[in-house]
Amino acid sequence: MNPSDITAENSVLALLTICGVIVAVACLIASEIIMNAKKKHYPEGAKIKKPLPVILLQVASAVAAIPLVISIVLKMIDLFTGNRENLISTVKLLGQGFAFSFGIFIFTILFSLPLGLLVASGRMSKIKTISVFFKTYISILRGTPLMLQLLLVYFGPYYLFGVTTGNIQIGPFNYRFIATVIGFSLNYAAYFAEIFRGGIQSMSKGQYEAAQVLGFTKSQTYFKIILPQVVKRVLPSVGNEIITLVKDTSLAQVLAVTEMFTQASALASAQVSVMPFIVAGLFYYLMNLVIETLLGLLEKSMNYYS
Amino acid sequence: MNILEMHDIHKSFNDLAVLKGINLSVAQGEVVAVIGPSGGGKSTLLRCATTLERIDSGKIVIGGTELCNSDDGFIHYCGKKTLGEIRSKFGLVFQNFNLFPHFSVSRNITEALVHVHKKSREEADEICNALLKKMHLAHKANEYPCNLSGGQQQRVSIARALAANPEIIFFDEPTSALDPELTKGVLKVIKDLATEKMTMVIVTHEMSFARDVADRIVFMDGGVIVEEGPAFELVTNPKEERTKKFLAGY
Ligand SMILES: Nc1ncnc2c1ncn2[C@@H]1O[C@H](COP(=O)(O)OP(=O)(O)OP(=O)(O)O)[C@@H](O)[C@H]1O
Ligand SMILES: [Mg+2]
Q: Could you tell me the distance, in angstroms and rounded to a whole number, from the CA of residue B200 to the centre of ligand 1?
């Protein structure tokens, strides 16, 4: 791209930004007018369901504001770097790193949630040895740095058993990646286990007893009566952990997995610029924004009872 | 025929003896009210009869099937299969309802019918609708328990207890958690059940209700049955000092 292209781009963007802001404000005012007109028919303080036109207007104003957001972001990047070309290649490289981060994230969620349920069950077992074992497990996994645990999973097989792991490969995943997922899953299972335990123990005895006298088996009681209610209760805390996990994936750099933060570090030192870090931060934030939205929807879908 | 037979029931929690040799038989169609001061063991008796608590010694027979005996000096409980049979012979209504909050009213009632008693959805829905009508709650079938008043919730839980067509229903203070306003509707449906000759054991503090609806009243205190007799007679003319003292409080 030569400078004149960028100038042309700039004026188009400026125009879009100005029009967008005007449209956004107009939409917001219109939706307020509709809501006020509607409010007149309701008693003071009553909860009014938003009519469809209002929702559409609000969405429209959000969309119209996008050029403004882009302008601000680009302006900030210009301030930091003065060089927009780097940005494209940086985003591309970080995108590749992001794929790894996302992979770690998804596999960890997939494995650690069920494992957490298992650990929670073990922790609550009536058999003393089992409950002590899982109590110790939770204590150690929560009490030592995740980074250390990752190193142990990666180097442990060699130093403890002399097993070489360098040529292990499952599909497209090498042992670095696999060890990362194992380490994360073991660690997050410990946190999830404690959250699940809290949720399960907060259930009243009456729910079990009602199920028992109605003739439900133990597993029916667990899966039909208890677990669905526990899910609702633990969702906010689980959501918290999930959001932390997104950021924690950056710890995989100790095993030299080329996840996003590793990429950002490399790019930052090559470009002598903080820009890659800022873009990486944006990636993390956008991903968490999506997760937050999904969690919010999930929570809402379970709001039909309290 | 006796639907419930409890013979020489003993039950302690650690060192605390709560039931000290209780004998109670309930005939088909009979309504028995259990009254007595707090801590006397009324709930524990009901919980032992409904398999929620294990007794230390004695014998319990429900609907002709033996739940447990200690004929040889050691307590023996029946196997899993028989336990399931026995649980379908009785219903239990809790003081605090214990409805399943994540199920709609109708699903609270049909869930066990479908998954325990293996009835078809259609059949279960039919039973549910008839019961809700009887409880004056036909219009609430699709509501969730949290949107119902306490009295309505308790009537749902009565419907749930009735769903599998049990031979006997146990109530543990069914109106104690309710505002006085709301107890009426609940007592009314229990009264209706009595008229239909449903066999019932009701732990209650509603003395006038016990007198009017029960055939027999059992007065429990300190883990023993102090006195029992026809409802009206026991309330108006108690023989034991402890019974007199207790009833004087009402
Ligand atoms: N799970 C338990 N563990 C230990 N003690 C218990 C337990 N359940 C009941 N008890 C004790 O047994 C005694 C009888 O209790 P129970 O609940 O049967 O009395 P109650 O007649 O139903 O009283 P209330 O009218 O207050 O409901 C009480 O002293 C109580 O503290
Ligand atoms: Mg009680």
A: 21
For the entire predicted model, the pTM comes to: 0.82
Does A17 lie in the same domain as A143?
A: no
| Nearest ligand for residue B35 CA | 1
Picking from A81, A106, A125, the residue at the C-terminal end of a domain is A81
Does ipTM surpass 0.85 in this model? yes
Mutate to test the pocket of ligand 1, among B10, B43, B54 (most ligand atoms within 8 A of CB): B43
CB contact under 8 Å between A206 and B52, yes or no, is no
Which of A13, A21, A12, A15 has the alpha carbon at shortest distance from A73? Answer: A13
Do the beta carbons of residue B46 and residue A213 sit within 8 Å? no
Asked whether the beta carbons of A305 and B101 are under 8 A apart, the reply is yes
How far apart are alpha carbons B57 and A97 in whole angstroms?
69
Q: How far is CA B131 from CA B41, B102, B120, B144, B161, in A?
A: 32, 20, 17, 17, 10
Residue with tokens 């200690």: B70
pLDDT tens per residue across span A185-243: 999 999 999 999 999 999 999 999 999 999 999 999 999 999 999 999 999 999 999 99
**Ligand 1 neighbour B13 (Cβ under 6 A):** yes
Ligand (nearest to CA of B219): 1
CATH at residue A212: 1.10.3720.10
* A247 Cβ neighbours under 8 A, 6+ residues apart: A284, A288
**Assigned token pair, A272:** 């002598």
